[in-house]
Amino acid sequence: MHIPDGFINIPTSASFGLLAVAGTAVALKKARTELDDRTAPMAGLTAVFIFAVQMLNFPVAAGTSGHLLGGALATVLVGPYAASLAVTVVLGVQALLFADGGLSALGLNIFNLSIIAVLASQFVFVTIKKIMPKTRGSIPVAAAIAALIAVPVSASAFALQYAVGGTGTAPASTVFAAMFSTHVLIGIGEALITMVTVSAIISTRSDLVYGWRQEKPKLAVKTA
Amino acid sequence: MSEVKGSLKKFYAGFFIVAAALAGGVSYYASSHPDGLEKVAEDKGFLDTAKDSAVANSPLADYGVSGVDNERLSVGLSGLVGILVTALVGILLFNLLKKKS
To answer: Under an 8 A CB cutoff, do B53 and A204 touch?
Structure first.
């Protein structure tokens, strides 16, 4: 869902660029209070993993593919602040080296994928975790539901940007409906990938999963 | 049931190797259909408003390595370069941010 240059006019792109800068500044400030010797490498590796999995487009409907966005996965693995930064690193590398996502659109993409997706994921994940049993097995399920919802929410954020400054002639409501319905399907793929990845990590090193560590603050920490 | 199995370094190495295998190998088998946004843009008639990125001539543009004709090699190499650069930037950034111990 990387927006190329041209879809959204420059004033709108610049405005969302400012929002992206503000959001990233908050994430930088807050991540500083959370990251330590064990979680800093985990945040870097989460970015690496998201870059890799974003290359794996899967078919969703006739002639359409989707790929992981990674906001929910990152939020559960490293917490919302480091997650937002990890996704931003990925978007920056993609836009600058791979011409994936426009340069003037980078702020739009950071807003949708690093900020909105992470906020939505964090909200859904925390809410679902509250109503599920306080067991380790609940974490991948809550992560999957967060992923399922975060993807169409991010797609809706694009529809909002299109409504404000889209250069196309199609009505914003039509674009919203199409973006939402397509990304509900992509969200199912996102949920599956997120669930499998969180399950695999939580069963080997549950101490490295932020979303579970928060539940067990007194968990003994064993370093390498 | 233990909460922690295996050393931290082994875990990090394993995580990286999985990412390298996905970016460097599995990526060749990814669907080449347009993604959700691109498809919507095509169906709703605004795909042609897209402009080429200023870095469209990057040797890695569109996940290939220019000059490498073998498609499998080209995609795989671009994926490996991508995860190495992401790792470099990510590790540098998060190390700068972490609490000093």
So the answer is: no
- The sign of the dihedral angle between the CA atoms of A131, A132, A135, A136 is negative
> What is the distance between the alpha carbons of residues A107 and B99, in angstroms, rounded to a whole number?
28
Domain extent for B87: 19-28+57-101
Q: In whole angstroms, give the CA distance from residue A24 to residue B56.
A: 26
Question: Which of A39, A47, A167 comes nearest B90 by C-beta?
Answer: A47
The model's pLDDT over B37-96, given as tens digits with 9 standing for 90+, comes to 999 999 999 999 999 999 999 999 999 999 999 999 999 999 999 999 999 999 999 999
Second-level CATH architecture of A10-213: Orthogonal Bundle (1.10)
ipTM here:
0.94
Beta bridge partners of A58: A66
> Cβ separation of A51 and B86 shorter than 8 Å?
yes
Contact B34 A63 (CB under 8 A): yes
d(CA A89, CA A31): 14
* Chain A residues with CB-CB distance to B90 below 8 A: 43-48, 86, 89
Burial (CB count <10 Å: 0-12, 13-18, 19+), residue A218: exposed
Q: Pick from B5, B40, B63: which is nearest to A178 by CB?
A: B40
Looking at the structure of chain B, the number of domains it has is 1
